[in-house]
Design a protein that fits this description.
The chain has 131 residues and is mostly helical. The protein is built from six helices and no strands. Helix 2 packs antiparallel against helix 3 and helix 5 runs antiparallel to helix 6. The N and C termini lie far apart (51 Å).
């Protein structure tokens, strides 16, 4: 099929983008795992992938491979839950560069836990703090 140009304006105004942003606002993104977990979960629940395909925006740099990842995962399994816990433990909050363990366990394309990034992020305990 011929290469179609991304309709950036149409895509930015599409309902899935608003739903995606609203979804992202609900979750902690204080570690690279948390950010990826929220981004993938929200992309899937908001229908962002279908919209990206519809507007020919899968190659858009801001969407960094969103069309390539699957929204299918067995989120209720013990493996999924242990991955959430492991990735929370090894991917440190506010680290600009992830640890080797975080990459190998959670972030790399061949990591065992990446497929569970589409699962709903586990709620963080609320810490009272002031900026």
């Amino acid at each position: 099929s011929e290469h179609r140009v991304c309709d950036t304006d149409g895509f930015q105004l599409a309902q899935p983008i608003r739903a995606y942003r609203e979804c992202m606002d609900q979750f902690s993104q204080r570690s690279l795992w948390r950010h990826m977990n929220a981004a993938r979960h929200c992309a899937c629940t908001a229908g962002l992938i279908d919209a990206a395909e519809e507007f020919h925006c899968c190659d858009h740099p801001e969407l960094a491979g969103v069309c390539e990842h699957s929204c299918e995962a067995d989120c209720g399994t013990e493996e999924a839950q242990s991955c959430q816990a492991a990735c929370d433990a090894v991917c440190m909050p506010f680290a600009a560069v992830p640890s080797q363990e975080c990459v190998q366990t959670c972030l790399a394309l061949d990591s065992p836990c990446l497929k569970f990034a589409v699962c709903r992020p586990v709620e963080q305990p609320a810490f009272p703090y002031e900026c």
